[in-house]
C-alpha cells in the first residue's frame, strides 16, 4: 500500500516526526536483526541424523552416546505422536457423542495401530533402556518371526506328529 502524501502543514509535520522516530527502528530491523536471524520453516530445533546403534563400532563410545541420545529424542517424538492421536480420538468421541462408534472408528483404528507399533518398539524394555536394548529387542523379534511366523498369529506347526 503506498504511503499517503501529507495534505496540509499539520499532516506534513506529524508525517516528518513519525518518519524521524520510525526510520532508525526500521533501519536496525532490516539491516542488523533480519540478516542475522536463523529462519527455519519449522518451530522446533532440527537435529542431524546420526548413525544408529547397529552402525556403531563396539568401542566407539561417542557414536554409541549419539545413538542413545537420538533414540531418546525419537522416543519422545513417538510419545507425542501417540498422545496427539489419543487426544484426537477422545475429542472425536466427546464431539460425536451418540454416534461416536461409527464416526470415530477410523481414528480409533489409527490410534490402536500406532499404539501397537509403539509397544513393539518400546514396550517391555523397562525404565532404564537405551538404543542397544531396543536394537536387541528388535533383533530377537525378527528371529522369532523367522522361526514361528508373525508375533500374535500363533506358532506354526512343525514336525510330522501333527500332520
From TrEMBL:
This protein's name: NADH dehydrogenase [ubiquinone] 1 beta subcomplex subunit 10
Pfam families named among the record's database cross-references: NDUFB10
Keyword annotations: Electron transport, Membrane, Mitochondrion, Mitochondrion inner membrane, Respiratory chain, Transport
Membership in a protein family: Belongs to the complex I NDUFB10 subunit family.
One cellular component (GO) term of this entry: respiratory chain complex I
Topology term for the membrane: Peripheral membrane protein
Protein origin, superkingdom: Eukaryota
InterPro entries assigned: NADH_UbQ_OxRdtase_su10 (IPR019377), NDUFB10 (IPR039993)
Subcellular location: Mitochondrion inner membrane
PANTHER family in the record: NADH DEHYDROGENASE [UBIQUINONE] 1 BETA SUBCOMPLEX SUBUNIT 10, NADH-UBIQUINONE OXIDOREDUCTASE PDSW SUBUNIT
Amino acid at each position: 500500500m503506498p504511503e499517503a502524501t501529507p495534505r496540509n502543514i499539520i499532516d506534513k509535520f506529524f508525517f516528518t516526526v513519525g518518519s524521524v522516530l520510525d526510520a532508525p527502528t526500521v533501519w536496525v530491523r532490516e539491516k542488523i536483526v533480519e540478516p542475522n536471524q536463523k529462519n527455519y520453516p519449522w518451530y522446533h530445533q532440527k537435529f542431524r541424523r546420526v548413525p544408529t546403534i547397529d552402525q556403531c563400532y563396539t568401542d566407539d563410545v561417542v557414536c554409541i552416546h549419539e545413538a542413545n541420545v537420538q533414540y531418546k529424542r525419537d522416543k519422545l517424538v513417538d510419545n507425542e505422536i501417540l498422545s496427539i492421536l489419543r487426544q484426537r480420538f477422545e475429542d472425536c468421541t466427546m464431539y460425536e457423542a451418540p454416534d461416536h462408534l461409527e464416526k470415530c472408528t477410523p481414528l480409533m483404528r489409527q490410534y490402536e495401530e500406532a499404539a501397537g507399533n509403539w509397544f513393539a518398539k518400546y514396550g517391555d524394555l523397562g525404565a532404564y533402556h537405551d538404543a542397544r536394548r531396543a536394537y536387541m529387542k528388535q533383533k530377537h523379534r525378527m528371529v522369532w518371526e523367522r522361526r514361528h511366523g508373525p508375533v500374535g498369529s500363533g506358532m506354526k506347526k512343525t514336525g510330522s506328529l501333527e500332520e
